[in-house]
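Tokens for chain A. Residues wanted.
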């Protein structure tokens, strides 16, 4: 198990990232989502609340170029399930699960992003809270080492997660041209007890030049009560 400080401080460009886990006391489900950017279009964004979820929007609408891959709802809530993704597949999962499909089934119609030569992976997660129990799933849809003719699909399920542990998945291994897709299973990471502490740790260790926005949510597993933090570099 590693720390999020170690994971973020040693990587100038993990891209977009999702963390899901549970606090050391076993009482709160935790998720975090961050976005980064190298282009002016990617950096021209903020997180805003939308219902129980969030969406991205242009900080300066007059400078918005192509909105197709940067404007979306990263977080949506369906009943007691919380969906977190790095693209408009949030809506795909929401619609699929609304019709009785599983998390994995709902993503069968999607692939990596059409932004060659990077072919950015689509990373997704869903948190299940019901009757005082918590489990979660994570997914990555990626090209075959940069070959867009083949989509590789990986889904990871975590039942009865161990207190104080979580998993971290992100889009890129590091900076580069083209950007190298994430490899391997989601990384096992420590989850702190305090939301404010965790939010500060994440934001301070994201690369200063490239970080854009951060979302963190702690959910009481017994009651469903939520606490949320949002930080935007653009103010």
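Reply:
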């Amino acid at each position: 198990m590693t720390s999020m400080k170690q994971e973020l401080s040693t990587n100038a460009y993990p891209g977009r990232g999702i963390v899901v886990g549970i606090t050391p006391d076993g009482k709160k489900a935790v998720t975090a989502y961050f976005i980064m950017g190298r282009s002016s279009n990617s950096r021209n964004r903020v997180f805003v609340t939308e219902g129980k979820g969030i969406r991205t929007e242009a900080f300066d609408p007059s400078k918005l170029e192509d909105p197709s891959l940067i404007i979306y709802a990263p977080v949506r809530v369906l009943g007691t399930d919380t969906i977190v993704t790095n693209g408009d597949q949030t809506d795909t999962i929401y619609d699929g699960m609304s019709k009785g499909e599983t998390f994995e089934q709902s993503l069968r119609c999607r692939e990596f992003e059409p932004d060659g030569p990077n072919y950015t992976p689509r990373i997704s997660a869903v948190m299940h809270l019901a009757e005082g129990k918590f489990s979660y799933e994570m997914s990555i849809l990626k090209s075959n080492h940069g070959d867009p003719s083949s989509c590789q699909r990986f889904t990871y399920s975590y039942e009865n997660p161990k207190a104080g542990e979580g998993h971290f998945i992100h889009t890129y291994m590091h900076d580069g041209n083209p950007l190298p897709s994430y490899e391997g299973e989601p990384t096992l990471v420590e989850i702190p007890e305090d939301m404010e502490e965790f939010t500060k740790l994440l934001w301070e260790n994201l690369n200063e030049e490239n970080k854009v926005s951060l979302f963190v949510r702690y959910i009481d597993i017994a009651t469903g009560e939520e606490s949320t933090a949002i930080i935007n570099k653009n103010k």
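The longest strand covers residues 147-159. The domain at 4-232 is CATH 3.60.20.20 (Glutamine Phosphoribosylpyrophosphate, subunit 1, domain 1).
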